[in-house]
Write a structure and sequence with these properties.
Number of strands: 5
Order of helices and strands: EEEEE
Largest sheet: 5 strands, antiparallel
Structural class: mainly beta
Helix content: under 10%
Shape: elongated
Strand content: 25-35%
Length: 71
Amino acid sequence: ISTGATPVGAAIRVGTATNTTTGGTTDYLYVPNLGSSSVSVYSFDSTVGLLGLVGGPVSITGGQPGAVAAE
């Protein structure tokens, strides 16, 4: 799995829903891509740790993302 051009950081958002197969939660990873003016979004199971892309990168208009935070 790859990101957009020039990834500059990462933020994790801890999920709240329990995955009934593994007993873990589905968490989310956000990566701002400075070189492609986008943010890549990934999901992963807190127990298994398998990373998966959630759709395509989200385009940013009016600038380039230089940082990201998740709550």
